[in-house]
What we know:
By secondary structure, the chain is mainly beta. It has helices at about 40-50, 70-75, and strands spanning about 10-20, 25-35, 55-60, 65, 80-85, 100-105, 110-120, 130-135.
Amino acid sequence: MPTKNNAAPLEIYQLKITLLGTMPPIWRRLLVPANVTLAQLHDVLQAAMGWQDCHMHEFSAGHRHFGEPNPEDRLMGMPPVENESTVRLSGVLVRVGAKALYTYDMGDSWEHGIVLEKRLPVDPGTAYPVCTGGERACP
């Protein structure tokens, strides 16, 4: 899925995505432009992990939460959610080793650990994003 941003990515992030709580681990290694939005990363994760995008999701990093904001959440006392369509991955994972959490299906709470493994230069001969490795299928 090419990014919809007109600006060419300045660098590529190598991410390791692990479905937490599985043994043996279910994981994927992805190369994605650092300038993708979290909404775009959601689409990439759905494809890479084999999910069908039919449930709610949320990203979190530290005390920040990202997703599709719902004004009713504040009335229910839930923490504010930043709009994933306006937040870039490079603004969340800043340094190698940085981590985030992606939760898919709030009922079953499929939690995925996201780790920034490397920051790489763009390879003009590669179409991003790309899955470079992984093991096992999601439930």
